[in-house]
Amino acid sequence: MFEVRTDLALEVRELYQEEKQQEIPGVAVEQENTGDVNITRVEILDQHGAQVMGKVKGKYITLECVGLRRPNADLKDEVSKLLAKELKSLAEMNKPMKVLVVGLGNEHVTPDALGPKVVSKLFVTRHLFQFYNKDSDEDLAELSAISPGVMGTTGIETGEIIRGIVENIKPHLVVAVDALASRKMERVNTTIQLSNTGINPGSGVGNKRKALNEETLGIPVIAVGVPTVVDAATLTNDTIQLVIKAFSKQVKVGSQFYNMLNELKNEEKYHMIKEVLEPYSANVMVTPKEVDDIILHLSHIIANAINIALHPGIDLQDVNRYLH
């Protein structure tokens, strides 16, 4: 397959299906519709599946909801509950745990500020455990959180910061929240992906740093991400697809013009677009103009999900009443 810019396992699977007209060998897919939310669970089972997908073996869960761009209170609660359920399943939480939540990204760049904003809304408790000299609690997890900033402002690799914290406080689990990129504008800010494979900080804006995963940190890492941007070449490619589809309806089927449009491969279009955009700074990321409000809503949803997933004694009524 040719490489299209996306961080979503769901979209990599779609690209393969479009090209090969079949499922990827070594990859299991399960879909569920809850009404407002579509859930797709993709599990990469073996090395062949990992090679085709370009991702490591593990589970990738995607929640899609168009209403996330302008969610009401009921929809936010519904998505938070579904996200919390999937998060608990991935983390295999049987009892309260010591958890470190890492909010990746740059708080001064709105499409990249999701991680820091989520961290600001969490019910952190590690200091309370320390103050009362407690090892565990039936209602609360020992939760700590950090927003390490970006290398351009700290001069320190994010992985180094997180590894140092993990070595000192010794959590059982890391939950990393970051912005991602999508290949379709319709999925920008309407999709939440979870995985148990870790994450590469900065992947959403094309600036991958050292991975945060079980191999580098020594403990399981759950990644939570939302595509907040789409790159210009991908957006243009999708737009041309729509234009070709519209033009094809206006010409006679079987004509030379129709055949030329219909036989133009995605790979040819995509690379042509990248070549055309290159002199004009092709590495442009696009996001909706309402991104400020959208990031605020999404940070509430994800923070609520993490709070109720990790703290057994806290429910949505508690977090909505006291934490916002």
Automatic annotation (TrEMBL):
Pfam family, one: Peptidase_A25
EC number(s) from the headed UniProt entry: 3.4.24.78
Post-translational modification, as annotated: Autoproteolytically processed. The inactive tetrameric zymogen termed p46 autoprocesses to a smaller form termed p41, which is active only during spore germination.
Alphabetized Gene3D superfamilies for the sequence: HybD-like
Homology family: Belongs to the peptidase A25 family.
NCBIfam families from the UniProt entry: GPR
Listed name of the protein: Germination protease
Organism, scientific name: Natronincola ferrireducens
